[in-house]
Design goal:
This protein is mainly alpha-helical and about 300 residues long. It is built from nine helices and no strands. About 80% of the residues lie in helices and about 0% in strands.
Length: about 300
């Protein structure tokens, strides 16, 4: 009976050591969001806006731009849940080759989702917002969405690297990286929002800077582990190039040729999506010969 209690206590301690950092990390992120909200509102008022005007300006950013950012984040989360058991199993078996292959596959597949999202939000920001909201405020929020677009890539990469850290048992790394981002974001936003050259644009810029700091911390930690080796840049090159081509080429063609001007956004989206899938297929992303760039 005594051994059973000790075993149960050991299991409980292990579960607590795993769940507590994750729970605390979520709390830190939520608290950072609340702190950021109050800070942005007060700093906007220092620029000469009334409380009502400051609320309208921030509401434009939070209700039109931020949902686009969180949408992509919600797409990456299921991937993390799918790859975490595979990565953990590879680490338990000390199968470094399979771990490297699985981590590279995870990066490549994630990049195939967040790179087109990033370039799409940057290139078609006004079209997307006008299509979804059909409001004059969409025109005001479009430049803010362009500035926020890189945060899609940075935050998604941070999520991927934190998942890799968790699979290796480094449960505190995601907590620290989120803490770093949550501390830097309000500080950065405070100075940028108070600058007339930035104004409300300081909010998306501060978001990008904050998550970049968290990403650099997680990346530096993982690269510093001598017993942990997996490709980081190589799996991301192909999705990035294909997404950039699919985003910019239709836009340039529409601006060059008269028949492309005035095309509705659904048509532009369909053309870009089809071009992206074609480019990925030509590069061997979906199958064909087995290569280091394959995702499946």
């Amino acid at each position: 009976e005594g051994r059973g209690k000790k075993a149960a206590g050991g299991v409980f301690s292990r579960l607590l050591s795993v769940s507590f950092p994750l729970t605390l990390g979520s709390c830190v992120a939520s608290f950072g969001g609340v702190l950021d909200l109050g800070l942005i509102m007060r700093r906007i008022e220092t620029l000469g806006y009334t409380p009502a005007e400051a609320s309208a300006v921030y509401g434009n950013y939070s209700t039109l731009c931020m949902p686009m950012f969180t949408l992509v984040s919600s797409l990456i989360a299921p991937l993390s849940m799918a790859y975490l058991p595979r990565l953990s199993a590879a680490r338990v078996r000390d199968d470094r080759e399979f771990f490297s292959q699985c981590a590279g596959e995870y990066l490549s597949f994630s990049g195939a989702l967040f790179f087109p999202a990033m370039f799409g939000l940057a290139v078609y920001s006004e079209e997307i917002l006008m299509f979804l909201f059909a409001d004059e405020s969409a025109e005001i929020a479009a430049p803010l969405l362009v500035l926020l677009a890189p945060a899609v890539c940075v935050f998604s990469l941070l999520t991927v690297l934190n998942t890799v850290s968790e699979s290796c048992g480094y449960m505190r790394v995601p907590l620290i990286s989120m803490l770093v981002s949550s501390l830097i974001k309000p500080v950065c936003s405070y100075f940028l929002l108070g600058n007339l050259s930035f104004g409300i644009a300081g909010a998306p810029v501060g978001t990008v800077v904050a998550y970049t700091a968290g990403l650099l911390f997680s990346l530096a930690f993982l690269l510093g582990r001598k017993n942990l080796r997996f490709p980081v840049l190589r799996p991301l090159v192909m999705p990035c190039v294909c997404a950039a081509g699919a985003g910019f080429v239709p836009r340039l063609l529409c601006g060059t040729f008269s028949f492309g001007r005035g095309l509705p956004f659904p048509v532009l989206f369909a053309v870009s999506a089809a071009l992206y899938l074609i480019l990925l297929s030509l590069c061997g992303f979906f199958g064909g010969k087995k290569s280091k760039n394959r995702a499946f």
